Amino acid sequence: MTDIQAAFSDPQFVARYTEGPRRFVPGYEAMQSMAAILLAERVPDDARVLVLGAGGGLELKAFAQAHPAWSFDGVDPSAAMLALAGRTLGELAPRARFHEGYIDDAPEGPFDGATCLLTLHFVDVEERRRIASEVRRRLKPRAPFVVAHLSAPHGEAERPLWLSRYSAFLAASGVEPDQAAAARDAVSNHLQILAPAQDEAILREAGFSDPTLFYTGFAFRGWVAYA
């Protein structure tokens, strides 16, 4: 477990978590809105949606507010983050069922759609392949799967440039320069950042069709693909 992953069980980190994504992820709220739109294109009005990395509850709340008849199964390895998700949802919490663990701990479904936002950069290539395959197995035919995470080109020039742009975004968002630099170093040294072509290939190898880029925020990218 990396120091970043361990933080999700730290009470002080968890208490501050909901403030972070809006500052640390370019276009975070717009990305959530786009994810909901992409799901809604294919799912029924009363959709059952699988949400991997549901701790904190921010995307659950955004989806639940936008679509009052959707229900959710949220999976996360951190009990503390799942508890925070329940608090974030508030009166919407009865529409979500929480499962502590990983993809193997998710219900079998079948689900009308699934998301995995800001999560896959914590795991290596082989685990990503396994997760993608297990998600697809739990989806109904042609159901949408929306993913977004750190993804940047490889190369001696390209990767440092994208990470520098990300650091500059953090500073522009009010993060202290030393914290912005530390965040860049943590991302570079401790997370599993693949090239966009690799991310698309993993979706295809898992059996998803038509992976389409819908979001780019400096070093972050998001795709929708279909079971």
What's this, in brief?
With 227 residues, the chain is α/β, with parallel strands linked by helices. It has helices spanning 3-7, 11-16, 20-24, 28-40, 58-66, 79-89, 125-137, 158-172, 177-190, 196-205; strands spanning 48-52, 71-76, 96-100, 113-117, 144-150, 209-217, 220-226.
Description:
There is one protein chain. The protein has 227 residues and is of the alpha/beta class. The protein is 44% helix and 19% strand. Strands 3-2-1-4-5-7-6 form a 7-stranded mixed beta sheet, sandwiched between helices. Strand 6 and strand 7 form a beta hairpin. It is globular. The N terminus is likely disordered. GO terms for molecular function: methyltransferase activity. Keywords: Methyltransferase, Transferase.
Average pLDDT reading: 90
Q: Which strand order does the major sheet show?
A: 3-2-1-4-5-7-6
Helix content: 40-55%
State the order of secondary-structure elements, H for helix, E for strand: HHHHEHEHEEHEHHHEE
**Helix/strand/pairing category:** alpha/beta
Rg (CA only) = 17 Å
